[in-house]
Specification:
Order of helices and strands: EEHEEEEEEEEEEEEEE
Structural class: mainly beta
Largest sheet: 9 strands, antiparallel
Shape: globular
CATH topology of the largest domain: Beta-galactosidase, Chain A, domain 5
Oligomer: single chain
Strand order of the largest sheet: 1-2-3-4-16-12-11-8-9
Strand content: over 45%
Length: about 210
């Protein structure tokens, strides 16, 4: 922990000899958690402390219990995007790479009904959605949550097989495609940060 107020807390990871052996860029990475009434905000700050351009990805893996209330079932819930979407899911290969073509999933709709079978073939990966927020809702309850992921170009939706939760994962970066040339600077979705520059992104969850 590197900082704390009455409503926020900051954790910092700084590069060292061990990190430089795996990731050859000096950096400072701050994660700031802040609470404002019924909303949690999680902010990322990446600082390039080196003297050359740094390449990196960053993303989140928050999970939410489903069902939210006793007496309801997993299939009573759905995800509702804030804009109508025409978007396919990008399949993940057995080696953890992104396949070269998407599979149809959202067809002129805002709604993705939740079923456990959705995740039997691993995560649902979206690229460049029109939406900047998605809500977890149920027709059987007024309670849910709204998840804002503005400025994150990729979104993953995932759950372990037959698990009672769903992850909503905003990403600035994505796994390599099956056609990758293994060059970091050419990687799809990679972020490039000049020396001494700062990269910042935030996602938010509001419960109701």
């Amino acid at each position: 922990m590197t900082g704390q107020t009455g409503s926020s807390i900051t954790f910092t990871l700084t590069s060292n000899e061990a990190t430089l052996q795996k990731f050859p860029f000096p950096f400072q990475f701050d994660i700031i958690y802040s609470i404002d009434k019924d909303q949690l905000k999680v902010s990322y700050r990446v600082v390039n402390t080196g003297d050359q351009t740094m390449y990196f990805s960053v993303g989140a893996h928050p999970a939410f219990n489903v069902p939210l209330i006793p007496g309801s079932d997993y299939t009573d819930y759905y995800l509702e995007f804030d804009k109508t979407e025409n978007a396919g899911r990008w399949p993940i290969s057995k080696d953890g790479l992104i396949e070269g073509a998407s599979v149809p999933l959202l067809d002129n709709t805002q709604v993705l009904p939740l079923t456990k079978e959705l995740f039997h073939a691993d995560a649902i990966v979206f690229k460049d959605l029109r939406s900047t927020s998605v809500s977890l809702l149920s027709n059987r309850s007024p309670h849910g949550l709204r998840f804002d992921f503005s400025r994150f170009p990729y979104l993953g939706i995932w759950a372990a097989k037959n698990a009672d939760f769903v992850c909503i994962e905003p990403w600035c970066g994505i796994a390599d495609p099956v056609s990758s040339n293994q060059q970091l600077e050419d990687k799809e979705g990679i972020n490039s940060l000049p020396a001494s520059d700062v990269f910042e992104r935030s996602w938010k969850v509001k419960v109701f």
